[in-house]
Amino acid sequence: MDASTPVTARGTAVTIPGETTTIRHNLGTTDIIVALYNVATGNELNSGITVIDKNSVMISTASGAPEQIRVVIMGI
Questions:
Q1: Model's pTM, two decimal places?
Q2: Could you tell me the residue ranges of all domains in the chain?
Q3: Among 50, 41, 31, 33, which Cα is nearest to 69's?
């Protein structure tokens, strides 16, 4: 695929507890962008994101993470 080939983005969003969690997104690709947000404040979070396979990611949180985290995953 070259830079001029159009692609269609797909995505999913889920709210998870503030603990290390594996998410099955079923997008069928490792070409993904993951964004994390504190549900209470709307602020973006930095956390460990590990791509497990073409359908799953693991979100690793540190101590003091918010109680609820919104995870948005987009893939092409």
A1: 0.88
A2: 10-75
A3: 41
38: which 2 tokens? Answer: 């504190």
Long-range Cβ contact pairs of 49-53 (< 8 A, separation 24 or more): 52/22
Angle at 64 between CA 17 and CA 75, to 5 degrees: 50
pLDDT tens digits, one per residue of 5-26: 778 889 999 999 999 999 999 9
Beta strand residue intervals within 3-60, DSSP E: 10-17, 21-24, 32-38, 44-45, 48-53, 56-60
* β-bridge mates for residue 67, sequence order: none
Helix (H) and strand (E) counts for the chain? 0, 7
